Amino acid sequence: MSDQAEKLRALVQQQSEKLTPPVLASESLGPRFKTRTIVVTSGKGGVGKTNLTVNLALAFAKRGKKTLLFDADLGMANLDVLLGISPQHSLVDVIHERKRLDEVIFPISENLELIPGGSGISELANLASEKLESLLLRLSEIEGRSEILLIDTGAGISRQVLDFVLAAHEVIVVTTPEPTAITDAYGMIKALNTQNPGATVHLLVNQADTEQEARSVASKLTMIVERFLEIKLNFLGFVEKDVNVGRAVLQQRPFSSLYPYAVATRRVNILAGTLLVQNDEPSAPEGFFSRFFRRIAK
Ligand SMILES: Nc1ncnc2c1ncn2[C@@H]1O[C@H](COP(=O)(O)OP(=O)(O)OP(=O)(O)O)[C@@H](O)[C@H]1O
Ligand SMILES: [Mg+2]
Fold first, then answer.
1. pLDDT in tens, 234-285
2. How many separate helices (H) and strands (E) can be counted in the chain?
3. Of these four, 74, 177, 211, 278, which has the most CB atoms within 10 Å of its CB?
4. Dmax of the chain from CA atoms?
5. How many CB atoms lie within 10 A of CB 200?
6. CA of 55 to the centre of ligand 2 (A)
7. Interval 127-147 mean pLDDT
8. 3-state DSSP assignment of residue 65
9. DSSP type of residue 232
10. Residue 60: which residues within 8 A CB-CB, separation 6 or more?
11. Quick one: which of 154, 175, 176 has its CA closest to 163?
């Protein structure tokens, strides 16, 4: 174990102790919530994570849930692109200490804000320890700012993606019916099984031709997971292939805003409703970012 890791672990511990609710409540950050953090991921890239994340966030916000979108695709962040906004600053400016975190939080609509990811940083784990320390302090400050923190990750089982996924209490694994996407989704679920066994893992089948196809993908994957892994997979639901998604991407607008009556919009609304009804309570009292930094510090 390196000195750096030791130092960082001590800092995480110190911060977790410091960040008790009374301390947070005294800061002028507005009302504090018990934040439900949901990380959206996949094995294979390009399955629709970012589109689903944006539109789920809008659906939560519409239902009156204060929602914060966090773009953890630090290599190629693009939540802002799909939202049709061009934030001047991003998490990268916070990491380099050019901006405070509250200065990069971008308001999208009532109840919805975005922390843009920026680009040019591949792995937080590789940051110098002082930079990580100050980022930890800042991110811990936003814990409790929203009712829901929805995190979009990049593609694949890279260290950068895993750091977020393995720290999560609740994960949505997105797959399409393509065999390669299903195999890669299984790989991600397997990683969760061994390294984050307490997590709630939802399966979301995107780009299905029919409901029947989506259900068949879900039951196959669930069967394999039940047979070989301990973790329980919750089939959250599905979204059909819908040309309106691609159309909306071209116009840099969320599909649910541009096409409120599209099939994909109806499905995302159902998914958001299902998630809110399930109302997962974090099993550990510790916040997401403390867990995240504890992982990085390993
Ligand atoms: N339900 C859908 N119906 C039709 N096309 C879709 C659907 N969902 C996503 N797509 C298409 O897939 C493309 C990729 O989507 P998106 O960028 O959301 O995937 P991603 O998983 O975030 O990709 P990456 O892994 O690169 O981050 C989109 O440009 C869109 O055209
Ligand atoms: Mg994406």
1. 999 999 999 999 999 999 999 999 999 999 999 999 999 999 998 766 555 6
2. 14, 8
3. 74
4. 56
5. 20
6. 13
7. 82
8. coil
9. P
10. 67, 111, 112, 148, 150, 272, 275, 276
11. 154
Q: Which residues line the pocket of ligand 1, CB cutoff 6 A? A: 42, 45-51, 73, 154-155, 206-207, 239, 241-242, 245-246, 249, 264
- Ligand having the closest approach to the CA of 181: 1
Report residue 193 as tokens. Answer: 């099984």
Q: Which atom of ligand 1 is nearest to the CA of 156?
A: 25
In sequence order, what are the residues at sequence separation of 6 or more whose Cβ sits closer than 8 angstroms to the Cβ of residue 47? 174, 175, 176, 181, 206, 207
Question: What is the four-CA torsion angle of 157, 158, 164, 166, rounded to 10 degrees?
Answer: 50
> Using CA positions, which residue lies closest to atom 18 of ligand 1?
48
Q: Provide the pLDDT confidence category of residue 85 given band limits of 50, 70 and 90.
A: very high
Q: Which residue has the tokens 């259900």?
A: 215
User: Which pair of structure tokens corresponds to residue 91?
Assistant: 């998490």
**Helix, strand or coil for residue 293?**
helix
**Side chain identity, residue 273:** G
In what helix (H) or strand (E) does residue 107 lie, and over which residues does it extend? strand 106-109
Q: What is the band of 297 on the pLDDT scale with cuts at 50, 70, 90?
A: confident
